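Before a colleague's protein record goes any further, I have to sign it off. What it holds is a sequence and that sequence's fold in token form. Would you go through it and say whether the fold makes sense for this chain? The record follows directly below this note.
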Amino acid sequence: MQVLMNLILVVQLLSALVMIGLVLVQHGKGADMGASFGSGASGSLFGATGSANFLSRSTAICATLFFVCTLGLAYFGSHRDAAMPQDSLLERAAPASAPAPAPAASGAAAIPEAPVAAQPAASAASH
């Protein structure tokens, strides 16, 4: 089960990186609009761009793969077997034998007291 989750996670990470690369390589539709106003050789301003090219189809496939991997990880993450140990980082960090601190009765009880020094008024009265 853990091997399957690791495999899905690797496929998800690779599809995300490939999808980021494909999106960065593609040029936007706004680039053709600027070219049609005199600086390029674009055919029409809002004309048909033709069928989807290889980059846009590859991006759609990577996005679908990423989405399916995300759903798979969510499913396997929420449906753990009873035989699998529930070993999480928080369970390992909290010691089981440490007692819980008792709550303070009031705000004044939570203030630490300073050591009491000899008061000068009491020593002046003795002289």
Observations:
- Helices lie at 2-25, 30-39, 54-78, 89-93, 120-126.
